[in-house]
Design goal:
- The chain is an alpha+beta fold and 298 residues long.
- It has 14 helices and 5 strands.
- Helix 4 runs parallel beside helix 10 and helix 12 packs antiparallel against helix 13 (252-266).
Amino acid sequence: MYGILEEKTFETEESIIIVEKGIVQGIEIIYDVLPELAERLDLGLRAMIFEVVQGQWRLLDIHQLRQLREHSLLAAATHRHLALYSEEVSQLPRFCASEIMWSNGAVPLLSLRMSGRGLARYGTMIDGVDYFKIHSFRLLMPPLELMFLWNLSAAISGDPRITMFLLKLMKEVVREFEEERDTWIPYGSEGNNIVNVMYAYGCCLSAIGNTLDALTFLQDVINLKDYITEDHFLIPFAMLELAMCHHALGETDTAQEILKDVKNEYFSDSDRIRFLYRLYYKIIVNEDDAPPAAPNSD
């Protein structure tokens, strides 16, 4: 994962300026629409327990990192499929204010990376694990979670160029899977990280309109169901994104069958799954259903 953040992938300086302005503007609009965001972030941070290392830099524990992955992916999906002023988007700060703000704090690293610069000088290694420094929050972030904060920034900004850039980065990980697609099985944390990237890759393909390729990678994630031992939310999330892809292709019956499967198998698993299910149900079935209840942060 660290290698893909260091490979030189050049973009124009003009595009970097557009990216920065787009993300900052998106965050400012969110502040206007959701004035409680900063307060919720402050309360969330005070409630979290951090390990403090290397001069007051903070580390998230395993549970908090898993939560970051789930919440940032859910928030990105919500932003990509709904208007900023929708009721569902207005509920996001109730459970992922931290992820929204951390994604904004990660924008300087994204800008550096898109300009072709490496991030080595902004990184450190602790117990054999690479971390990158989000200075505005004094937070150390592993490569995968940093990538997912960038993915959330891309969704908030609405600029497809950021999504396309992330696809370039993730392609290096996905290529390793593609070479052994028929026999590949995820092992340990590294395998879990690769499956996360495959899911995010499929979502990004869908976001830029490459629906058929998105279907392939989302189905790949679902096919690995029996081998996923950590981030179990990836399966229902992938199924729901798969339903959205079929809906985009006009295959509404297939999309609705997938929704039924998710409801039957996963609806009781978590508030986050129920939130995304209800959100996509409203889009696919096109019924004026009750708005999703906001997930909690458990």
